[in-house]
Amino acid sequence: xxxxxxxxxxxxxxxxxxxxxxxxxxxxxxxxxxxxxxxxxxxxxxxxxxxxxxxxxxxxxxxxxxxxxxxxxxxxxxxxxxxxxxxxxxxxxxxxxxxxxxxxxxxxxxxxxxxxxxxxxxxxxxxxxxxxxxxxxxxxxxxxxxxxxxxxxxxxxxxxxxxxxxxxxxxxxxxxxxxxxxxxxxxxxxxxxxxxxxxx
Length: 200
Hints:
The protein is of the alpha+beta class. It contains seven helices and ten strands. The protein has a single domain (45-199), classed as CATH 2.40.50.90. 32% of the residues lie in helices and 24% in strands. The strands form three sheets. Strands 3-4-5-8-7 form a five-stranded mixed beta barrel. It has a two-stranded antiparallel sheet with strand order 1-2. A two-stranded antiparallel sheet has the order 6-10.
């Protein structure tokens, strides 16, 4: 029987990437097909940081809920990124707000994912890197211009996990260069600034 604890193995004095082992487990258990996620995405050294589940709800372009492998509903903030937002008081929506939700839903809704938990935010949501087979969903949303790098990550990247930060900056630069999604709107402002307009 597989367990998160048993996913951590030793190899040449280093820990084998947990997501690689977990990916194989998921493939056998759910898909019947073996896939092995790229080690470029294999960050966690503690199997307790990994959550398996099926995406049950998409709230917006950077917030979801999953039903984990124990049947518990877990709300997840898609870590390090910020998608177009909506003002809950006025219902004002940023450019491509709806497209961003559709993009995320099309990628992962009702699908089995692996989440690397990076902790919890002030609302108690899991901050997670989401993996669908070999794809880092957080990075893919930015690459498509459906989200941008979260403002605190942009201004203090050294405080965050460096491999993910690099992937996100590379993805955002590519999206900007092609004017994809949000970057094709000249009047676009970051969701962070949009939410804090009253403070300015």
